[in-house]
């Protein structure tokens, strides 16, 4: 892995950021991860799932359990989709 990857967020991961996805499923599926950020302990910190629902799962230092936020957005129709998620502090 390039050493530049570790220098991107020198002050820590930002509280406010956006994720843009453009995707098309080749087959139907219930829910699969398409974007994952891992902590320095190699644990999932943020995961975006797509399928019959759109879901975001996150975990931070203040929570023991994962937190899941689900959206009523079924992209399991074999068509192209553009998905934009914005995270600002504790809102998504």
What is the topology?
Blueprint: E1 16-24, E2 31-38, E3 44-51, E4 54-58, E5 67-71, E6 80-88
Antiparallel strand pairs: 1-6, 2-3, 3-4, 4-5
Describe the structure.
This protein is mostly beta strands. Helices cover 0% and strands 48% of the residues. It contains no helices and six strands. It has strands at residues 16-24, 31-38, 44-51, 54-58, 67-71, 80-88. Strands 2-3-4-5 form a four-stranded antiparallel sheet, with no helix packed on it. It has a two-stranded antiparallel sheet with strand order 1-6. Strand 4 and strand 5 form a beta hairpin. The chain starts with 15 loop residues before the first strand and ends with a strand.
Would you tell me the overall average pLDDT?
81
Major sheet, described briefly?
4 strands, antiparallel
User: Strand percentage, roughly?
Assistant: over 45%
Low-confidence stretches: none
Straight-line N-to-C gap: 30 Å
Assembly type: single chain
Q: What is the H/E string?
A: EEEEEE
Features:
four-stranded antiparallel β-sheet, mainly beta, two-stranded antiparallel ribbon, 92 residues, 0% helix
Summary?
The chain has strands at residues 16-24, 31-38, 44-51, 54-58, 67-71, 80-88. The chain is mainly beta.
